[in-house]
């Protein structure tokens, strides 16, 4: 098993786990039980996505592609006025 990624929070961890599982990669979350103690523990490095050695490279590539993807707004790739990174500016 290899630790391939350190998610920022549980929400990112669950989203990435779902994506990897949809691609046939068996993934485990390490450290989820420690999140409740974040007030007393260092906040960085608690969570880790773990995959088998054989699937580690593919999983890293999928996560890298996901992180580099540009979100589409209203089904187009063109920037929309008043919208910044998919968030409506007020």
Automatic annotation (TrEMBL):
UniProt-listed Gene3D superfamilies: UreE, C-terminal domain (3.30.70.790)
The record's InterPro entries line, in alphabetical order, gives:
DUF2007 (IPR018551), N-reg_PII-like_a/b (IPR011322)
SUPFAM superfamilies on file: GlnB-like
Query: Under which name does UniProt file this protein?
Result: DUF2007 domain-containing protein
Pfam families xrefs:
DUF2007
Q: Where is this region: Disordered?
A: 70-90
Q: Where is the DUF2007 domain?
A: 1-66
């Amino acid at each position: 098993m290899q630790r391939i990624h350190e998610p920022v929070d549980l929400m990112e961890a669950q989203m990435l786990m779902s994506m990897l599982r949809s691609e046939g990669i068996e993934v485990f979350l390490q450290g989820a039980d420690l999140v409740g103690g974040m007030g007393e523990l260092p906040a960085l490095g608690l969570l880790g996505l773990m995959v088998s050695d054989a699937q580690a490279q593919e999983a890293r590539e999928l996560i890298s592609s996901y992180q580099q993807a540009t979100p589409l707004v209203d089904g187009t790739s063109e920037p929309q006025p008043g919208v910044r990174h998919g968030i409506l500016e007020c």
